[in-house]
Amino acid sequence: MRFELPANKKLVYEMTMPIRWGDMDSMGHVNNTIYFRYFEVARLDWFFSVAAPHGITMQTSGEGVIIVNAFCNFIRQLEYPGDVRTKMYVGGDIGRSSFDTFVTIERTDEPGVLYAEGGATTVWTDFAAKKSRPLPDWLRELIR
């Protein structure tokens, strides 16, 4: 089964990360679990960059985002050495407390060639109460 990224998504962040030797598995390519790590790093780096001006620090006693599901379409095998370029998007339906994020991965030495694409449903949460909360206005405006 392959999940399709929506056409109505908005690019919000890009970053470059090295492919580490330890990211590879015994088959000589980047392990499938690492793609999710690349997605996570891009998503959190974006979130921290937009949340800090609003006093959000992701402490367990405050509020912030959690992921309730995630998917990855593996298109090509990544191999060491090299750098990956992640592009993060928001899109789809914005709910009361949730929104969708999407990430694409390409190598920096092959711009425009997709190696993976994926996404996650992100929920605004009160960490102490362990319950979802409505998206803050500043975040809703940013992702709209």
Provide an overview of this structure.
With 144 residues, the chain is α+β, with helices and mostly antiparallel strands. Strands 1, 2, 3, 4, 5 and 6 form a 6-stranded antiparallel β-sheet that branches. It has helices spanning 32-51, 137-143, and strands spanning 9-18, 63-74, 83-91, 98-107, 114-126, 131-132. The two termini are 29 Å apart. The chain has a single domain, classed as Hotdog Thioesterase (Thiol Ester Dehydrase, Chain A), CATH 3.10.129.10. The longest helix is centred in the N-terminal third of the chain and has 20 residues, at 32-51. The model has no long low-confidence stretch (mean pLDDT 92). Helix content is 19%, strand content 39%.
Q: Rg from C-alpha positions?
A: 16 Å
Report, as a whole number of angstroms, the end-to-end distance: 29 Å
CATH topology tier name: Thiol Ester Dehydrase, Chain A
- The coarse overall form would be globular
Number of domains: 1
Helical stretch tally: 2
* Pattern of helices and strands: EHEEEEEH
Instruction: Supply the helix-strand structural class.
Output: alpha+beta
Number of extended strands:
6
**Are there runs of 5+ residues with pLDDT below 50, and where?**
none
The CATH architecture is Roll
Regarding CATH, which class? Alpha Beta
Strand content: 35-45%
Average pLDDT, to the nearest integer? 92
Major sheet attributes: 6 strands, antiparallel
Assigned CATH superfamily: Hotdog Thioesterase
